[in-house]
Amino acid sequence: MHISVGDAEIHYDSHGDGEPLLWLHGGLGHGADWQFIFPQSPRGFRLIAPDLRGHGRSTGAGPTYSFAQSAADMFALLDQLQVERVNVIGLSGGGITALHMSVQQPERVSKIIAISAPTTFPEQARAIQRVYSESMLPEADRLRLHERHRRDGQLDTLFSQVRAMADGGDPDFTADVLMTITAQALIVFGDRDPLYPVSIALELYQAIPNAFLWIVPNGGHGPVFGAHAAPFVETAVSFLSGRL
Description:
Elements: E1 2-5, E2 8-15, E3 19-24, E4 45-50, H1 67-80, E5 86-91, H2 93-104, E6 109-115, H3 123-131, H4 139-148, H5 154-165, H6 175-178, E7 184-190, H7 198-207, E8 211-216, H8 229-240
Parallel strand pairs: 3-4, 3-5, 5-6, 6-7, 7-8
Antiparallel strand pairs: 1-2, 2-4
């Protein structure tokens, strides 16, 4: 399914019934990535899984990527689906989008789970972003990327966007901005993330008024896949259902 948002066509899928739950994938991912974590859509929730702007089957990519624009896209999607309030799970870049949503229209976001989402890009991440290219990835990862992003030139544009992020100024969440978030927030970070130090997780936890913090032992960037998936699902569903 698609909706039109300005110059973009945003593709999304919807699974299950119940309380709306928006899944926001990470950079170079697509909406169906939730299936690498959840064996099935979480019971009691209507899972809405878009391809973010320019990714997968969504269009609208430009020379730079705006996480703030991505958040506005998601509110346009929710408007068309007649969803007034929503829970959000965001991974990496999707987590940045979730934070923007919580700042832009705090009354519409009930709970967020922000996974490996920074307040700003630290220099160690920017150094990687500035030179990031497809050639740096294993062959299996490159094949998956081409399966997800099939339009001519699509991957080249996405990699160019990543390189531009290093000096793009988004995200830039200060403590006074994060204090305006009214949603309950679960901040999830790996203690071995090569991009973002754990101190960023503490910044988010201390600034967001109603926040929980989960540092995943031996967890890298996006510590919710593979062996980490089952404990994440249990914790995430408990948090979203109000059992934490």
